[in-house]
């Protein structure tokens, strides 16, 4: 199946999941669908059938901005980490699919809780250091929101990773320019983001269109080529929050709001069912 | 009738050493015996006595600089793939400063991180209240999934440092700055969650942790002079608490004093009160800091000003016996 078709199904899953419980975060999830699809279906060496916490010999992924859990859960399920039907339990009582990801419920694919922002890069660095200590060639990937970069811990981690030459880490920023209270520029501008990461000593790549699957795959492949050269890698990935559902695009309104019945139908009409709905 | 001497066992002091050096010695031993152990420090390697590990195992030591939040997160990540990370900084920066990082990345994520905290309490001394955390036991024990240990001397701290490597799960190990009497056995077996009965007695139970254990022993001798038989329990593990040992003792003596270098709120005393109120309501007195920050001063001056001396324990014991 083509990656774009997988993207379409993941987007259907996202809007259906948040609609079913009238909560969750569709905007960022839709915007990062190409990234997750590329990562899990093309880029990462992962083992969906035999998940272990240690992930020896595998590439690892850490989601730092845990609120976009719907896209991660869908990608994991569609990749075979756990039954697709379980997506129907998202945010419901007794579910393994908590509002924000957790290891507590033993959901395959999850190695760290996230939700309180700013912590995922440190965790990814630690995992990358262990890969090195264990003399593994595997890589560690992490994803961060752009608003999340307002957290100070990110910059502690940024400084450390460059200083200690953590060059088996590929971090990505979901640069959609929006956060809960509005545009980043209205809340706290990130200024020249490329220059910031370069100044911290990272190798910085740009994915101009994070909602073009070919662009995302190419960006991640380029990043892989740059690992092992003494610098951590940062991909600044420009995305559109709410991408794929026309009325959710161009606004920060759908950051953490679920569609109603009518809106769900409108959304699903724009997203072909390619892998059978759960 | 018993003689006064028979009321209180004598403990031989084998030296004066700081508990943080016990941590350093334990880490040194782990460096030699357990290749999975790694260590992280936030610019306090000398204060935490981690230099030996750092020098002998540079590949397993991570200097993270003055960035404690990042240190906790990196430690959590290091566990993925089987490492056993020990983080080292002052108790204040090990807990209060990084509470949410510990909560989400360590405790909730169930990561096998050992948070090792020196300079806890008032005995840090002259640096004053900014550095004298008195809330850390409470902060850590409230977290689900967290084991909380506060050791009393060099030997016990060394043993605890080694023991937590063999326990899988998050642990908080609290120790201090000053040299204190060393009286527990060298190379002792350290059992997490197991209270140590130091002296059998019948009139009052004194339950102490950390630096206050030696003061409890000294208070026991003073009480013996007065003809009072004190049962003294060394609680190194505040969570999980050894309920059985406490209930057995208090069931016999019918009154209890707790002693700790910590706020009364959230400390060992509160855990004991919780246990007793449910199972065995008993008159109780608390030797602890009473809802106050510390200040600059010599450790002994501070312990006196804030009511954490052997005399305070003695008076509390007499008072609680009256309440029986």
**What distance lies between the first and last C-alpha atoms of chain A, to the nearest angstrom?**
18 Å
Largest sheet entry of chain A = 5 strands, parallel
Instruction: Please name the fourth-level CATH homologous superfamily of chain A.
Output: Thiamin diphosphate (ThDP)-binding fold, Pyr/PP domains
| Percent helix range of chain A | 25-40%
- Uncertain parts of chain A: none
What CATH calls the topology of the largest domain in chain B is Rossmann fold
Q: Which strands sit side by side, in order, in the main sheet of chain A?
A: 1-2-3-7-6
Compute the number of strand runs of chain A. Answer: 7
Structural class of chain B: alpha/beta
**Overall shape of chain A:** globular
The first-to-last residue Cα distance of chain B is 22 Å
Mean pLDDT of chain A equals 97
Main interface by residue count? A-B, 40 and 32 residues
- Oligomeric state of shown chains: heterodimer
Number of helices of chain A: 10
CATH architecture annotation name of chain A? 3-Layer(aba) Sandwich
The CATH architecture of the largest domain in chain B is: 3-Layer(aba) Sandwich
Gross geometry of chain B: globular
Query: Which strand-content bin applies to the residues of chain A?
Result: 5-15%
